[in-house]
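Box 3.1 A note on notation
Throughout this textbook, protein chains are presented in two layers. The first layer is the amino acid sequence; the second is a token string describing backbone geometry. Keep the layers aligned when reading.
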Amino acid sequence: MFYPTVGITHNVNDHAFSIIPEPYGNKNGASYMDRRAHRRVPAQLQGFLLGNSHESEAVTLDLSIGGARFDCDLEVYPGKVIRVRLVIPGAEELVSIEDARVQWVGEDMFGVSFRNVRPAELDELEQLIDEYEETEDSGHA
């Protein structure tokens, strides 16, 4: 897992921010991954991210119904809201999430939380995660 160096301050589009890593564990010994609210799978999906008035191609590195980690060179900063469109295998249309908030930024990757996801998109994400976990459990990944 990538943990950026503490105390690095960046200035992007006149927005100053510091990259601060999530703690490796809390006082009860639970790691950050253990405290996640949603199941996360290492699914790699093609995506398109709209931010800074242009759309960039991206690939998910992992995914949950609550967010994703992307490999992408789009310039973002924590707190920035972007639009995410994901290509789900077998789906007729792209899954579109209008409100994805950047949570952290690393080198050529960043994490977003999904907010206000429509029920149809939520269903597609849940089905994809369920199918991924079934495939993993059967050893046919």
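The chain has one domain: 39-138. The longest strand covers residues 95-106.
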